[in-house]
Amino acid sequence: MKVNKMFKDLIPDGYFRQYLDLMDEMNSEMPLPFHFLAIATAVGNGIGFKSWAWLDRGQEVYPHLNTILFSPAGYCRRGGGTKIAMAIAAEAGLNVMEGAMTPEGLIDELIERSQIDGGGCGNLVLYVEELSTLLGKRDYQRPIIPMLTKLMTNNGGSLDFRTRTGGRRSVPKANLSCLFTTAPEWFMTSIPEEAYSGGFMSRFIPCYLEQREVFHVNPNPDPAELESDRVKKKLLAAGLKELIANFPKGSIFMTPEAAGDFVTWYDESERQIPLDERLRPSATRKPAHILRLALVLAAAKGEGEICAERLEQAIKLMDWYMATLWHMYGYNEDFVNQVKKLDVKVVEALRKRGNEALHGELMRACYKYFGDKRKMQAHMEAMEEQQIVTRINRPGYPLDYKAWPPRAWKLVGGPSV
Length: 417
What we know:
Strand order of the largest sheet: 4-5-8-3-9
Number of domains: 2
Shape: globular
Low-confidence stretches: 331-337
Mean pLDDT: 84
């Protein structure tokens, strides 16, 4: 199944679907999962601290998202697609800053915006098309990582930072959202290890894609189509402004059905052991990210509460995105052993087939990686013991009977692995 079609089915009707439909109309080469994260980042920042959901008593979750898009250089047209979302966000009145900035520059911008916007809150969408210009191992770049880590989920009051000159600057409550894009090869080898293995990365909803599905070029576009695109983008900007303004202020509660579903999901999710230790920090923040997604989905539908359908969509979206991060880590030769590489190959083959495949079909897709039926059988049984996959037995066999070969294989919990 194509990624764009598979992903679009996860998005409810309303503002986000209208946005993705326009990207389809324009034959945008950037994949739709990237487009969604880019515009969802704008929606969350626009709502800011005006509305929140609850993870628990005393644990408010605000909807500002931080997103990072990975793809091999030049493959998925990250720059062109994200620029569209940020232009629409700016047209809607959001404070969008593009490009790298120093720690001092970030402090100055947040302080200045708090004075312009009022309310003691600095509003900013920091958009960096190539993350290598912002983060790195050079001494002057290192301070930006702990600073961003503190600011991105600052739900409290002001924060004090010491500048390079030795002075102290007080940053007000920061409604900071980050939209970054980069190539995975650079990210894994060029930035400090604490960025991808610690708290910094866990504050992002990431997406890694290897290729695009749309290949389109038009050196002589029709002026009428260009004008139509311009009008539709302005309408999307107006729609973004309207949905932000109309979203209720204060606590956004779940319906009783959604609350029950969330408690059940949370209990099961928290007991799961991440398949890769580098995913553990991200796994701990998964419930909060799901609430953020549920908030922006509700806002885009014009709803003042989180219903069970919106919660389910948020969980499925988060599972979809987290699976791509594991896939990225798994394919990096420097950071994974051979066993994990084979896990990734099997998971990816199942994901491409809607998370379930007949045994024979999976064998044909993955046999080349194993080279031997016995090796593949042993590996599939090991993945089953780790609760990565589960077998579907042939008719007539008990559900827990370990018959070989089974009828089919299925990812445990869908793409959440």
